[in-house]
Amino acid sequence: MKDIYKTLPYRDNVACIVFKDDEFLLVQLHKWEPNWWKFPQGGIDEGEKIEDAASRELREEIGDCKIKIVGTSTHRLQYDWDDVSIQRGKCRWRGQNQRYVLVEFKDSEENIQLQEEELHTCCWVKKDKLKDHLYQEIPPFVGYWDSIEKVLTEFSSIWE
Question: Which range of residues forms the domain containing residue 67?
Answer without folding.
Answer: 3-158
